[in-house]
Amino acid sequence: MRKLWHSLSLLARRRSISSFSKSYSCDAPFNRCTKTHELLIQPNKFVTTPFRNMGTLVQKTSPIPSRQRKIMKNSQLEETFESAETTEEMLKAFSNMEEVFDERELGLASLKIGLKLEHEGEDPEKALSFANRALKALDKDNSNPSLPVAMCLQLLGSVNFRLKRFSDSLGYLNRANRVLGRLQDEGLGVDDVRPVLHAVQLELANVKNAMGRREDALENLRKCLEIKEMTFEKDSGELGKANRDLAEAYVAVLNFKEALPYCLKALEIHTKGLGQNSVEVAHDRKLLGIVYSGLEEHEKALEQNVLAQRILKNWNLNADLLRAEIDAANMMIALGRYDEAVGTLNGVVHQTEKDSETRALVLVSMAKALCNQEKFAECKRCLEVSLGILDKRERISPVEVAEAYSEISMQYETMNEFETAILLLKRTLALLEKQPQEQHSEGSVSARIGWLLLLTGKVQKAIPYLESAAERLKDSFGPKHFGVGYIYNNLGAAYLELDRPQSAAQMFAVAKDIMDVSLGPHHADTIEACQNLSKAYGEMGRYEWFYCFDFIC
């Protein structure tokens, strides 16, 4: 099986993992080979020359011993399996091998077929069957880790992820990670370990994102970048993509400050390697615009967006260009340039199809500009048309529609139409609850529903939404995220409204601790949480704490 293992080693150096709803870039040394024959060890081909035996004696050949015949037959079966290019050929050759080899000897062949099936993606259950078979054959001794065992575990993680069995996937991948760590400690060659380790880390990030654990996924993506930094030249395009992937992940958890250096690094690498007019540079600049918007540096954001639009226009990437123009209009709205934003959106809307999702998004942005101008009748007309389009697309693009509903609800909230806003948010929540990878969005929407119910005096109804939101966001962003602090602050206000000052004090204390860490003790919202805590202690009659916290605040 030495040749088979050699071909699997080559496969390990080329494999990569594709992501779930949103992909992280992969690189050449980790990419799966698209043609199987590139991975195979071809048998030696001997060239024979014509030769005429001039002797007159008959030469007798000695019979081949049965043991040698068996070795030759086994070798021929292995060669046939190795030379198979299609899945059908591999399965046929494997069937022949089953008649001769025992289960332990078939481990590597089972692994190779599992990898092939998983790459094709047409029959994940069959790939899972071969992966399990390979693991049973290769992992006879749990105390003796090996690279084939790590590859089996990574394959099982990948297939279970494809089947949306996220907990099972996470278990296999964590075990693969531990095996690879032990192999590194034992001094196995980094060229063998790195490709598999990269695949495991990338898949761990994908699984955690799918489970809504986005903060945890960041650590795995950072490790992916570290592996690439050890593998590629410092100005490699693959490092540019890896830096952008990490920046996007930070944007997803609203950590724009951490996203900025990675986005700038991606732009630097792509500009140096590909020039100012490359598509990669356009994508970097679009992302940089989003980062600057998150940091409320809207002028810088708009500047990057304009530069990205020029490149997209040069490459005739019209769909991306339309999205960039919508982003630009939203940046103009943030800057208070409402007429300019409406003019931009009027130009975009005529380039969209009547019932397209893009037209709905244009109308939502136009409604936002009109709402800020207090043109409420025109704003409502835009929102109604947009809702009519989005309603038809709930099954096609549930996540995108949910995001649009959430944005529309904000416009109704701005116009003080809270009941309509709450109904739209509940529709949003119904869509997101079916998408496990959107747990963070589900938490944010629950928090908004809770806050609006609290605002409209429906305090008792608000509490379950706020409690659910706190749990969701803690799982997604970690227990010290500022968003979690705001939810606990609102929970404190709800309990105080229900004359439960002790429960309120507990919530305000948690909110203050979180905001001290995430926002700093001198931030306005941290001070407000401190004042609320002081008020709760005052309601309880514990005036020594009331005066203490009032003094601190």
Automatic annotation (TrEMBL):
InterPro entries: TPR-like_helical_dom_sf (IPR011990), TPR_rpt (IPR019734). Pfam families: TPR_10, TPR_12. Keywords: TPR repeat. It comes from Vigna mungo. TPR repeats lie at residues 402-435. The keyword Magnesium does not apply. It comes from the Eukaryota. This is Kinesin light chain. The keyword Nucleotide-binding does not apply.
